Amino acid sequence: MHKYFSLAIPLVSAFLASTISARNVPANVKAFYNAHRGPCSNKLSAEMGDVVYCGDQPGAIFLKGSGNQYDNMDIDCDGLNRLAGKCSDDPSGQDETSFQDDVKTASGGEVENLDAHLVPYVVFGNEEEYPAFDPREYGMQPLSVMAIVCGDRLFYGIWGDTNGGVLTGEASLSLAELCFPDEPISGDRGHGEHDVLYIGFTTDDAVDAESYNWLAKSAAEFEESIAELGSKLVARL
Fold it and tell me: Dihedral of CA 97/81/192/60: which sign?
């Protein structure tokens, strides 16, 4: 029985990973991506570099770069195991994440904090320096599901951390690995092209944190647990 179980887990994980990697970008999300490539009309923040938080879509907030660009994907390794594996070269990692108390509550105390190796999360919002931006002022909730268009595919993540400066376009190691499996991603090496679309949702039903698979053994397993809610949210775009 133990032998069967040990064989089944990799097979299930491989199936989940292949299913997720094959998720196409829905037609309405493609239309959204193309329609918003011009300048943002409803800037919710001051420019951070050449990126703003944009409110051109009701019920959503997304990062918009200059011209026809969106944002890149820098790597965040904060939280549990912050120096393990591919995060060993992260020069700025820290033990804390912004919503770790919410994580502990939502997981029933099973998980103390986010693990960038296992949870596909986005760093969204900027604190401590000017210009600052708090998505909660526009209705986003901590741990709410977000949609990420990257590498011509769609993935779901959660709003898991904020940036202590003015850096935007940042995601957990595991989310970057889902997005760009053929790139040499590490704690100090992300995806440099400004072609990643990050969408947060401001509706009350964008978070159901108690239902997430906080004990997932891979980012693919965690992502699968939020996919149904994510699909419902992107269908409104």
Answer: negative
Q: Is 62 left (phi over 0), alpha (psi -120 to 50) or beta?
A: beta
Instruction: Identify the weakest region by mean pLDDT among 16-20, 84-88, 97-101, 137-141.
Output: 16-20
Residue 198: closest CA among 61, 75, 78, 68: 61
Confidence (pTM): 0.91
Q: State the pLDDT at residue 10.
A: 35
Distance, in Å, from the CA atom of 164 to the CA atom of 28, rounded to the nearest integer, reads 33
Above pLDDT 70, what percent of the chain? 91
Residue 225 has pLDDT above 80, yes or no: yes
Asked if pLDDT for residue 223 goes beyond 80, the answer is yes
Which residues in 167-195 are b (16+ Cβ under 10 Å) and which e?
Answer: bbbbbbbbbbbbbbeeeebbbbebbeebb
Q: How deeply is 47 buried, as exposed, middle or buried, from its count of CB atoms within 10 A (0-12, 13-18, 19+)?
A: middle
Instruction: In the chain, count H helices and then E strands.
Output: 5, 8
Give pLDDT, residue 91: 82
Q: Are 150 and 26 in contact (CB under 8 A)?
A: no
E-assigned strands of the chain?
Answer: 52-54, 60-64, 71-76, 121-126, 145-150, 153-163, 170-172, 191-201
